[in-house]
Amino acid sequence: MLRVALLADIANYDPHQFSFINASLIKNLYDSLLEYTPDGRAIPSLAEARAIAPNSRSVTLTLRNDVRLHSGNKLDAAAVAANLRKAADPRLGKNVYPTMSIVADWTVVDPRTIRLDFKHPVPDRQVTDLLQFISIIDPAGIETVEQTPAGSGPYRLAERVVGQRIRLVANPDDWRRGEPVMREVVFRIFSQDAAATAALESGGVDVIYGGSSRSAARLKQAGDPVIDGPGPLVQVFRINTTRGPFRNDTFRQAFNYLIDREGILRVCYAGMGTVVALPWAPSSPAHDPSYAQTYAFSIETGRELLQRSGLSQAEMSNWKLVVNAGSQPDVAISQLVQATLRRVGITIELEMKEGAELTEAMLRGRFDAIFGGIGNVQKFLSRVTTNSIYRTSNNPILGEPHPFPAYVAAIERVNTTLGSGPEVKAAYDHLNKVLVACAFGIPTNTYNPGLIVTAKNVSGFTLDIDNMLVLRTTVRR
């Protein structure tokens, strides 16, 4: 048995939601059509082969013939089609829905073959990102998947005691030979990082997943292995532009300079990460380190923009910063920002939330401003639109129609520019300029919420490009 400490309970069992709070289970209960190696190379999974049409307007998938879902039903093209219907539904598609925007329709060719047709020629990487993003749910359980898992992956749910533990057992019908290695996995839910750390040090758990950077740095110094995966998130100061002073463009743009990125990385993440002013990790082709220099912390420049906004001091202070009370880094970041704003005459309250209340506020736009990480930043650029604040359609924070058409157009330009020449770089550069001008999200730094700290007798982790926890190859000696 493998014992894993988590710092928060899961929200639900729907892998299409793809929020990090569910990252411990998604790749253990479900499989995707294809996967990525840590360096971003697409490899087969449930789809054993793919063929992108020469005109880049479709992809044809050939499914494995030996996959059984947890219900015992055999995986076939009709099951994939049912998942595509869910993903393409604006109500049911969750985080996958924006990625499905490139798909016009699909055709079940035969039981093992399905073809996806696109609305326009699509870059290869955007195609593979879509296929990797869609975890396959058993069609019989799609309607109830939030409450009850309907899996396709290496483990099945055996037990859940909300707020305490989750127990998984090996799927005896898993199509991978010899996997999963561990026959049982028990997740223990801890309310505090220090308690999880103490459990690892005392031998009460074998792994901590999603602990703080500070604790990981200390445990690493003490000799415990720390695995920092290939898929960092970017911390973003998210702004609801429909509320209070944030309706003012110049007021928002002042925050490009009023965020002490270096201080945030040092104080809140023990220096583990990279300062950024754009929502891309260093591995992204759109990463541009010059922006972090251009928009370096400057009280003077920020104060000048605040004055140019035309807002009164009272108007500039008329908002609250929602804070994830269960995250030490988020609390520390918010306090740093609160202190910085006092220096320019802005006094704000910190509104503490956690659990379901926090998730509801963040995903439905029930905030003035909030810090929250975004993922998929090492993949094709438009994957950023899977994050609620960056969605180009059905945006739950900014509303519909989208208030920043220049941003929507810039994403569309990226999506429709094929090849690898200067026109591609020009599309990326244009998007970066638009993001800074719109300023509905102010990135601060990369960080890894999926840090894995292990006991010395645990090894064999499969690294996931999104830093999801993958346990099928993990072994406890």
Describe what this molecule looks like in 3D.
The chain is of the alpha+beta class and 477 residues long. Helix content is 29%, strand content 21%. The protein contains 14 helices and 20 strands. It has helices at residues 26-29, 77-87, 124-133, 193-202, 213-221, 249-258, 261-269, 290-294, 299-308, 313-316, 328-343, 355-364, 405-416, 422-438, and strands at residues 2-6, 34-36, 42-44, 47-52, 58-63, 103-110, 113-118, 155-161, 165-170, 184-189, 207-209, 226-227, 233-239, 320-324, 349-353, 369-374, 441-447, 452-454, 458-459, 475-476. The strands form 5 sheets. Strands 8-9-10-1-11-18-12 form a 7-stranded mixed beta sheet. It has a 5-stranded mixed beta sheet with strand order 15-14-16-13-17. Strands 4-5-7-6 form a 4-stranded antiparallel beta sheet, covered by helices on one side. The model has no long low-confidence stretch (mean pLDDT 95).
Quick structural overview:
With 477 residues, the protein is of the alpha+beta class. The protein has 14 helices and 20 strands.
CATH topology of the largest domain: Dipeptide-binding Protein, domain 3
Indicate how many domains the architecture comprises. 3
Rounded to an integer, what's the Rg over CA atoms?
22 Å
Shape: globular
Instruction: Output the number of helix runs.
Output: 14
Give the class from helix and strand content and strand pairing: alpha+beta
Largest sheet, if any? Answer: 7 strands, mixed
What is the strand tally?
20
What is the CATH class name of the largest domain? Alpha Beta
Based on the structure given, which CATH architecture of the largest domain is correct?
Roll
Provide the β-strand percentage band. 15-25%
Kindly, what is the distance between the CA atoms of the first and last residues, rounded to a whole number of angstroms?
Answer: 10 Å
Percentage of residues in helical conformation? 25-40%
What is the CATH homology-level superfamily of the largest domain?
Dipeptide-binding Protein, Domain 3
Which strand order do you get reading across the main beta sheet?
8-9-10-1-11-18-12
Regions with little confidence, pLDDT below 50 for 5+ residues:
none
What number is the mean pLDDT? 95
